[in-house]
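Good morning C.,

I know you're traveling, so I'll keep this short. The sequence:
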Amino acid sequence: MSRKTRILILGGGFAGVEVARVLERLLEPRDAEIRLVSRDNFLLFTPMLHEVAASDLDITTIVNPIRKMVHQTEFIAADVNAIDLIEQTVTIAHGADRHTHLLGYDHVVLALGSVPHFRGITGLEQNAMRMKTLEDAITLRNRMIAHLEEAEPDCSEITRDAMLTMVVVGGGFAGVETVSGIYDFMESAVRAYPNLSPSMLRVVLIQAGSHLLPELGSELGVLTRDKLVSRGIEVLLNRRLTAVTPDDVTLDDGRLIPTKFVVWTGGNAAPPELAHLTTASNGARVITTRTMLVEGHPNVWALGDCARIPDGNGGYYPPTAQHALREARVLAENLAASLQRRPMKEFTFNTIGQMASIGRRSGVAQILGYKCSGFAAWFMWRTVYLTKLPRWEKRIHVALDWFLDLIFSKDTVQFMSFRAPGQGIPEKCSLETSASNASSSSSQAE
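The tokens, ready to paste straight into the viewer:
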């Protein structure tokens, strides 16, 4: 009796999960053993991540349990520690004690996504937040509330200017949608704090290029900038960070912005577990052929954010969800074809369109070459992504959350309690002030 072909998929994002789902349809369980390894036991719908940070959506609405999405695939919740292409093994770590063991494979699919690339900027990694994971979105939301809470008392030793200044770095889709979500949330939430007002808020977006959303072209980039500026968001173009400390950021023109709130969306790189591959260098993604095989390795495949797949025109396909899903389907078909000794096909896809939400029920979009902005683009953004969200259960939940968001104000419940960076016990708070605050709280409770 012949042994089953062992297929190991690393990564539980759009690409990895879709590869598993398609392979389940193409291969018989008696012929192949499919395993999927992912750090999280859920698929994160990243296009809506900024809406969780902005309190527009509940944290559970944009995640789907992977075990409910695959049926013949063995799912393993674990971290990938090392990949040995010679021995054809992967070292994983899981469990409370993070014990390790080896998984062997005949074919391995690299779908590990990407990690923030800090470009060697002094203090950036240590002092900036990210917007890549569900934890990042939750942390961002809690930090916004924590800063409002710290800035509210008159006795706070930390200056309100620094506490209420939010800096987002990176003018691509993630940066624009994040800064819009931050501004919408803070402008609404600040009204619940008697000693604060919207005029005290300062939200800054820093972009190294000459216009925002370079993927959509200069016209929509300029329109987006004008829209953000009209709302009160500062947009600094052609500017780069040179240093970040717990108290401020420094720009390449020497300008210093006092802030304790920095979000980095300015670049991504391949995960460190792929750094040893000779096809990956300087934080670049793993280079593949157009059939998505890693060059020089006939049983190693790569796709999604961690891969650079040639587009046939001298460039590479962008790391977006719409590309990852289609790459996954072709890769799964090619992997099955290789097992059955059939010809493989090259991946070819023309981008359908790209959209961004820029806050206050406004957006920008480019669909099949046509450009639009404002409410129509925002409505299109929500409609398209709602239909792409896996499982009807989640779609209904998201639609209900969006409806309730039209009626009620932002929820300022802090999920995690922590002091803002640099905050100690306020020595200047007198007993009289503390007693007064306690009395006020008691009266409100009654």
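Safe travels,
E.
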